[in-house]
Write a structure and sequence with these properties.
Layout: H1 26-40, H2 44-51, H3 55-63, H4 70-80, H5 85-88
């Protein structure tokens, strides 16, 4: 039996990515959250308090050291009043893992 092909999840381009580098996974989510923080001029302290985690924990997530969990992403989307898909969608607007 032939092995099944794994679905390739398209990478997310980010203005935070160095030239020629693409961010994927936790780094893409962190990049989108940093972009929202900049757009709305929200500090790490304010966002960490809003989502109920320590500022140091948010900092680790924003660096990509620790992934944002689903609850974090939903809370952040609600805080900024944006759709969750704006944080986790690829450039075509398709959510990661969608068929």
């Amino acid at each position: 039996m032939a092995p099944t092909a794994q679905k390739r999840i398209p990478p997310r381009l980010s203005q935070d990515a160095p030239p020629g580098q693409v961010l994927v996974g936790r780094n893409a989510v962190a990049s989108e959250v940093r972009a929202l923080m900049g757009r709305f001029q929200v500090s790490q302290t304010a966002l960490s308090q809003a989502i109920g985690i320590a500022q140091s924990g948010l900092s680790r997530r924003l660096r990509g050291d620790v992934p944002f969990d689903v609850d974090d992403i939903y809370t952040i989307a609600a805080y900024f009043d944006v759709p969750v898909t704006s944080i986790v969608a690829d450039d075509s607007g398709t959510t990661a893992g969608a068929a």
